[in-house]
Structure formats: C-alpha cells, structure tokens
Design a protein that fits this description.
heterodimer; A: two-stranded antiparallel ribbon; two-stranded antiparallel ribbon; 4 strands; globular; B: alpha/beta; Rossmann fold; four-stranded antiparallel sheet; 10 helices; about 40% helix; transmembrane (chain A); cell membrane (chain A); membrane (chain A); ABC transporter permease (chain A); transmembrane helix (chain A)
C-alpha cells in the first residue's frame, strides 16, 4: 500500500514544490532542476534502457533550443508549436544519426556520438547568419499559456516544466512495464539472445534513440524560452559530461535516478559557484567516486532496504 | 518443410560449415549429432538467421529464408531454443514468456498459448513471479523451451537441451519433446547425448568438422558401428 502511494506522494510534492518558498532565486533553481531532469530522463533511455553511452545528447538539446528560438523569432509561430517543432527537428537529427551510428555498439558508438555532437556544436558556432554564432540568440519570446498570458515568473514556468517531467517519467515507467520495454532490456542484457527471440535489435535501439532525442529537443526548446538567451555553449563538452554525470550518479535505468542526479548537479552548481571553473574538478570527482562506490547510482542505496520487504519468491494464483 | 542446400559458413577465414545439405519433413523429429566444434550450433544459428551463410540456400516451406533477418524467420514459425538455456537472470518467468511472444503469429491467442505451456510445464506456473536466475537448471531449460513455444512455432530447434541436466530432468525433457511433437510441431534437436537423441528422432544427420558425413534413419544409426564407437562408446 505504502509502496504504491509513494510515487504519487512524491509527484505531488514535486508539483507543489515552489509554493513552499517566496524566493524567486529558489524558483529559478527549481526550474533549472526540472529542465535538467527532463534532459537526464531522456538520456537515461539511451544509457539506462538501451545500455549505450551517448556523448551527443547535449547537441540534441541545443538543436531543440535553436530550432524553437529561430522559428518563433523569424516566422512568428506560437511558442507551443515551436516546442513541438523543436522535438521534431531534434528527433529527425536523432533518426539520421541513430540510423548511421546504431549499427555499431559499445565504445565505438560512444565515440561516434561524440563526433556527431561536436559537428553540430561547431556548425552552430560558425553559422553566423542563422545562429548568430558564439554571440548566441537573445530576446527569445517567453512561453505563452492561452488564457494566462506570457509566463514571466520562474514559479509559473516551473509548473509547465514539472508537468513535462512527470508526464515523461510516467511514460518511462509505463514503457518499462510493457513488452516493448522488456525488448529494450533484452537488447541491453544480451543483444544476440534478443535477436534469437525475434526482437529486431536495430529497430528497438533506433526507437529508443529517436524518442530520447525528441524529448531532449523539447527540453531544449523549454530551456530557450525560459532563459530567453542561448549560446552554442549549451552543446559543449561540459554539458555532455554534465548530463552523463546526472544519469550515472543518480542511477541509470531508473526513473528516480536521473531526477535525483539533476538535483545534485544543480545544487552543486549553485553551492560551488564561488569556486568558478574548479567546480568541474568536483564534478569529475563525483563521477569517479560514484562509479567506484555506488556503480548503480544513488538510488541503489535504498534498494537493499526495499528488497527485504519484497520476497523473491511470490507465488501468485493462476488466472 | 526445412531444406538446406550446400550451405557454407565462414568465421573469417575459418570454414565452420562446408556444403551442408539436409532436410526436415513436416511432422518429423530429426537430430543433428556430432562432437564439440563440429558446427552443430553454427548450423542452427544459420537456420534461424543469426548467421548469414557464405553460400547455399535455406528454404522453409519452399521459400528462401537465408537472407531474412531473425525476426522475420521467427514470424514464419521457425523458432530456436538456444544452447545453455540463455535467459535474462533478472527477468521473471512471466516476463520471459511474454518476451517470447514478441513476434508470435496472431492466429493463436496469447492466453491459450500461455495455458498450453503452463500445463506442459506446471512448475513454471508455480514459479511465475520468480526471477529466472533463481531457477534450477531443469526449470531454466523448461522456461527456455516455454519462451520459444510462446512464439507459436511450427518448427522448433533445440540446441543441446539436456546439457547439464540431472537424469530425472532429462526424462521429463524427453517427454516434453514427445508432447510438443504430438501437438504438431516439427522438431530438429541437436544433442551430444546421442543415445537420447536417436531414441527420440525419426532420422539423424552426423556432422563432422563442418560436413555431413552420415545420414540415415535413427534405428539404423543406433546400430551403425561408426556411431557406436565414436559417440556411444560401445
């Protein structure tokens, strides 16, 4: 009973979190947390469910951010439509890159995604006419909710993003209980065996990869219309590493892990702000320490406690 | 039903199969015997599409399948139980059975197939929520076969089903194979336990270093002096 109610309680707390404080600074940090959580959850589909490491995920985030910003500013389409377009653009790139890269696995795949990510970053940086290069794009219009008007405050924005996070988290949860989700795990655990059971390994991986890039694109769009300023730096190596840190430190292959990882990242980023670039060393240490001491992420720490209450052998009556 | 014509398989430069031709007729139990490294598993993997032959043709019910991906072959009803009862240790019994139905033909409903399997292997019904990694060897083999049956096979290939099983389990397994056969499934079984394989089968092929060297009825193979000395130790 408690185990069933726990996710709903957590979702409720998450949804109402900004009501607990008046500080706009804290609201801002919360929005960043949710944006990163959405992004980390999408990367988790690749790292956690498909078992492949992608260094290119920040590029899809950036593609979404740029697509949405440029569309709204140059064609004047409403922001909600641009957000969908952001997902589609990122997904299209994801499809092409995945179609090429997913034929190989393991470290080679990771390196290939790093290459594609770097290409997208470089093109964004130098295509002045479209992206304004390293100067970035500013004065991006905010998200407008019909009947409410433009979202000016971080607190209002939080509710939009948290809705996306909760919806996607639920989608991940539902996926992993479905036959398609089990096919993902079968491919991750033993691809040749999965193939021998009739699972189309390549298509399964492509499906997960494209879904992850679509969500990353939408997260990018949300990011652009929240901060209202974007630069190519959000596709840089630093962001790629940050995303992987969130997923691995939090706990890959779980729904709670990436959300927790995003919280740790955002809080550390703020707490250590005074240290400047030295923060990166702390993050590196965090990743290293986590891989050595809690290889399954922080969420694995409370698992042993839960296992005891969940006997391995649970006979059920026949249907 | 299944026909191989002049199949060559190479791993790099090494030839694993050379000019292998064999056929399995509808309703038969056929066995493929041979020592370690003769190419038995390679032959099965080639039939289920996991390995592409370098030359030759494989026909299933008259149609070529040697260029099809594995999931298309399974859809036609040609299903393999891999050697060493490969399971996913962290998935439950029910999850495995559901996974087996991934590409099942739809002419039989899921629940009917599930009921059939659970009555063939009642222990699986008892252990339905248990993780596969915690099952005994015999139960794992039953689950591996049950998972394959979920794909509604018309042609089932078993790779070393008796490997590492206790004698009582081997008897149960032989009964299960006969039951599956009686229900209309054509069976190709690869075995190192040649006595067991020949007692089940109608016909047999003997594979030696990638070539078919003997082909005969099971009865005659059992009394063949070469088989006796090489595989039965008599």
């Amino acid at each position: 009973m408690i185990r069933k109610a726990l996710p709903f309680a957590a979702a409720l707390v998450l949804a109402l979190l900004p009501l607990g404080t008046q500080s706009t600074y804290l609201h801002h940090v919360m929005v960043l947390w949710m944006l990163y959580a959405l992004l980390a959850l999408s990367l988790n589909v690749i790292i956690g469910y498909l078992g492949e490491l992608s260094f290119g995920h920040a590029a899809f985030f950036g593609l979404g951010a740029y697509a949405s910003a440029i569309l709204t500013m140059q064609t004047g389409v409403p922001v909600w439509l641009a957000l969908i377009a952001a997902g589609l653009v990122a997904g299209l790139f994801g499809f092409v890159i995945g179609y090429v890269s997913l034929r190989i696995v393991g470290p080679q795949f990771a390196i290939l995604t790093l290459g594609f990510g770097s290409i997208i970053y470089t093109v964004t940086n130098y295509w002045d006419d479209l992206t304004r290069g390293p100067m970035g794009i500013n004065n991006i219009p905010p998200v407008t909710v019909p009947g409410v008007g433009p979202l000016g405050e971080a607190r209002d924005y939080y509710f939009v993003v948290v809705a996306c996070v909760l919806a996607f988290a639920y989608a991940c949860h539902a996926l992993m209980r479905s036959r398609t989700g089990r096919a993902f795990l079968a491919v991750r655990e033993n691809a040749p065996l999965a193939a021998s059971l009739g699972i189309d390994v390549f298509r399964t991986k492509l499906l997960g990869f494209v879904a992850a890039t679509v969500v990353a694109g939408i997260a990018g769009g949300l990011y652009a219309h929240y901060l209202r300023v974007i630069t190519p730096e959000l596709m840089s190596l630093q962001y790629m590493a940050a995303l992987i840190i969130m997923v691995v430190v939090g706990g890959r292959g779980t729904v709670v892990g990436p959300i927790l990882g995003a919280l740790i990242y955002v809080v550390l980023l703020e707490v250590l702000r005074a240290f400047g670039p030295l923060r990166l060393i702390v993050f590196a240490a965090l990743l290293t320490g986590s891989v050595i001491f809690v290889p399954h992420g922080l969420v694995s720490l409370w698992r042993p406690w839960r296992r005891r209450a969940d006997p391995a052998i649970r006979p059920e009556p026949a249907p | 039903m299944l026909e191989l014509v002049g199949i060559d398989v190479r791993y790099g430069h090494k030839r694993a199969l050379e000019g292998v031709s064999m056929r399995v007729n509808q309703g038969e139990i056929v066995t493929l015997i041979g020592s370690n490294g003769a190419g038995k598993t390679t032959a099965l993997k080639t039939m289920s599409g996991l390995i592409r032959p370098a030359a030759g043709e494989i026909r299933f019910e008259g149609e070529r399948i040697d260029r099809l991906p594995p999931h298309r072959i399974i859809e036609r009803g040609l299903v393999q139980v891999p050697e060493g009862r490969l399971l996913f240790p962290d998935m439950t019994v029910m999850e495995h059975l559901d996974l087996g139905a991934h590409r099942a033909r739809s002419d039989q409903p899921f629940s009917a197939r599930l009921d059939g399997i659970l009555s063939l292997f009642p222990i699986l019904a008892e252990r339905r929520a248990q993780k596969a990694g915690t099952l005994s060897g015999g139960q794992q083999q039953m689950l591996a076969i049950g998972r394959a049956l979920m794909a509604a096979p018309r042609f089932l290939m078993l790779d070393e089903p008796s490997l590492g099983l206790a004698p009582v389990m081997v008897d149960l397994l032989a009964d299960a194979i006969r039951t599956m056969h009686a229900s209309g499934i054509t069976i190709l079984v690869v075995e190192q336990r040649v006595d067991l394989a020949l007692s089940l089968a109608d016909r047999g092929y003997v594979l030696e270093t990638g070539r078919i060297v003997i082909e005969d009825s099971a009865d005659r193979l059992l009394s063949d002096s070469r088989i006796k000395s090489a595989y039965l130790g008599i």
